[in-house]
Amino acid sequence: MSSCISRSKRIPALLCATLCLLLAGAGCSAAGLSPADCAGYAVAPADDGSREDVRWADYLRDHLRRRADGGSRTVSDEAAGDRKLFGLTVRVDSLLKGDFCVQRDRRGIRITARDGRTMLWLQYQLMKSLSGEDARIEAADLPPAAVGLRDTVGRFAFGYRGLYTPAAQDVDLAGILSTDNVETGWGLWGHQLDRVLAGDAPQEVFATVGGEAYDGQFCFSSDETFRRIEAYVVDNFGEGDSIPERFVIAPADDDAVCTCKACSAVGNTPKSATPAVMQMIGRLAGRFPRHTFFTLGYLSVQEPPAVEMPANAGVIVSAMELPLSADALKSARGKKFAARLDRWKNVTGKVYIWDYIQNYDDYLTPFPVLERMGERLRFYRDKGVEGVFLNGSGYDYVPFDDMRTYVLASLMRDPAQPVEGLIRRYFAANYPKSGDLLADFCVQAERRAAASGTGLNLYGSIRDAEASWLDAGEFVAFYDALGRVLPTAKDAERRHLHELLTALSYTRLEVARRHAAGPFGFAERTGDRLRVKPQAEKWLAALEESASFAAMKHISESGLPVGEYLDAWRSRIARAETVSDLLLGAGLKAVSKPDERYADLGVLTDGVRGLSAGYHYGWHISSADLEVGIPAGAASRAHRFEMSFLDLPRHRLRAPQSVAIYKDGVLYKTFEPASDAEGRIFTVSGPVDLSGAERITVKALRPEGGRVQLAADEIYLIP
Fold this sequence. Notes:
single chain, alpha/beta, six-stranded mixed sheet, six-stranded parallel sheet, globular
């Protein structure tokens, strides 16, 4: 527990060292006036001679008055006189030992904060808590408060608390939650150095890789690189005399390393750019002693330098290697990450963490990362990390974003808070009709994810979600219940639920696609055919309403449009009932060795065509030539063969050279793939006669080229 006594001032009466640091306003407090029993409020600065105290007292008076029934009558500009007023005293003290302090005496409350940013947060905490005791104060729009009206003193776990979620982009809400914005709080952020070095930059600012010029990466030993960054800082931010700024100076998001003569001379290797990057950081830190220069502990700058970094230099360490699974911190990867973090702390006192809170291949399916993140934030705090940036979906909609933003912001201030309590508190305050339903679903999802050894996948599919946390039956029941409660809600709750149900319709379609003709699937099986259920069209129509929501244009970080997914679903999956398939539901035998994550061959005979929208949508991935055995009995009645492949070069997925059918070990027929109009899906098809064969195999031959993979979908044998 820290005291709210400043280092240079003495408070002779009430000693804040005796305050109790407890959540939600619990603590020790003197009996005295109740806000509700007073005629109103009197707001005053602690020091009339302090511009900051006066400014923040005016701010509190103005905003409290807007929320008060009776306005200026309730929040007075004048002294109490004969009226009984509840006093609110405001103090900004840069020498405060903690971050904030609340003191309650018999006549009112005194709030003290170390800086203006914290004072803003503390005032909204105060207004929310006042509304709980005084019905004249309206604060239903504010998130639940962690600090109440009793004696409290606190220190935040992290000084920098960056949160990249849609809700956190709201400037007002960011102030209320006391979160940092990466787009406005840095002179350069992340992998944005190309803003300075791209365009008309000469070749010397770019890397030399393998003896060849490479404009996808930068040379950090180049004097021209330094001059351009220097000019950018001076022209846009000056010397930092009045407003010091932070900059990230890091390689492009590419693991290529410059090994030109100069970079090699300072120690660069084909795997490590740390020596040259640190030399550049040192030059900039010396040139601009009032600014601060960070790099990213990521890809080619994983390891710290051998010598201590300048005082105005730091690192943002990526937690990408740390699994989002149970016991991750105790795993081999977790211990490796912790050791690397310690090595960075040995050379700089400014260590931040860049962590990840979203499935970047699927924004619209819930991602229960809160329990996991609470554990990690406690670990970072105990390691002495100064700042945390949690990278979410940015401006793109994700389910439960308002609740997640509130919980994550709360955990960055104090990661010891119970996640379930924060979830339930938020939903109870903001969703009067559906709060219990939403909270129960989210809490159960968090519990399953927290206990899962499989872990959450940052680039996963619906199959990965089911492997780690999603129970298809429970999700379907929740989705249906949400549809029933939505018409009973009103105003903001109804709007939020409509948006949520729209987004979750994508997840419902993905569950349906994955389960095909199963209990939660989109179809029913009749003999050798699938019949699409009428409900599927309702789910599609529900997701089409995403066009009404500006933030719900994309499904993933790559920018996959919702409309493209819908078109693919209708054009490919709805065709399932047009084909009679002798292999529907048949078990295939793996002849070639399957990839570890694709041992199940069921996706090749479930009757569901893969979608052109991406490799997550019904495709079987193979790093080798794909060869499977098919049941001879079913094949004996076949008259036609068909099989499709996804071609996505950026993911190293290419159409096969050819597909061959073997009868009893002898080549029977070879098919050449033909492309669709978009060049995305390649199909092989043609007449076959497989009668009389006892052993039948299908083999797809990969094209030449390193690390090329095949993505195959349904194998059809059509009678």
